[in-house]
Structure formats: structure tokens, C-alpha cells
Write a structure and sequence with these properties.
mainly alpha
Length: about 100
């Protein structure tokens, strides 16, 4: 009866006694890592600029400079990922000179 409603062993719903493990392929986490890297670059460099502004009394100039540099670093990271050839996990990006591969 339960199998007819989609609650059997072959359905998407499992019994509470079965062990459920979630496995996410690593390539699915690439977008998450890029987003975190982008966020950390902007927030981190903006915070450094804000702290420098507080010490020197130059608000908001170093805060804006930190934000701009953070955005540039974040976009550079995305650009390097977007221009990396598929399947290239060697860490050698587009700026690596030829012949420096391990």
C-alpha cells in the first residue's frame, strides 16, 4: 500500500531507519567558494580602509579605496576562474609562464 503512494524502498521518501548521507560533488561548490572569496575580499579590504580612516581621520577616502580594491580583487578572481581551461586543476592560471609546471 505504501509503495503505491510513493513511500516504498525505491521512492524518494525513505524510512526513518535508513541512513541518509548527502554527497555533493566538489565541482558544485565552486560557485560557493567564488562567492565567499568575492565577499571576503570586499568586506576585508573595506574594513581595513575604515580602520585606516579612523586612525588618520581621513574618512571616507580609505574606506572607498578599500572597497574599490576589494571589488577589483574579487572580480579578478572570478575572471581567472572564468578563463581557466576546463579540467585544469593544476593551479596554473592564465598568467603562469610556460615551463613552470611541476
Amino acid at each position: 500500500m505504501l509503495e503505491a503512494r510513493g513511500f516504498g524502498p525505491g521512492s524518494a521518501f525513505h524510512s526513518p531507519h535508513e541512513r541518509f548521507t548527502m554527497r555533493v560533488p566538489l565541482q558544485d561548490l565552486t560557485g560557493l567558494s567564488l562567492g565567499i572569496e568575492f565577499f571576503v575580499a570586499i568586506v576585508g579590504l573595506t574594513a581595513v580602509g575604515h580602520r585606516v580612516d579612523g586612525k588618520l581621520g581621513t574618512a571616507p577616502w580609505f574606506t572607498l579605496l578599500g572597497f574599490g580594491l576589494g571589488a577589483a580583487v574579487g572580480f579578478r578572481s572570478m575572471y581567472r576562474f572564468a578563463t581557466k581551461p576546463p579540467g585544469d586543476d593544476s593551479g596554473n592560471g592564465p598568467g603562469t609562464p610556460p615551463g613552470n609546471n611541476p
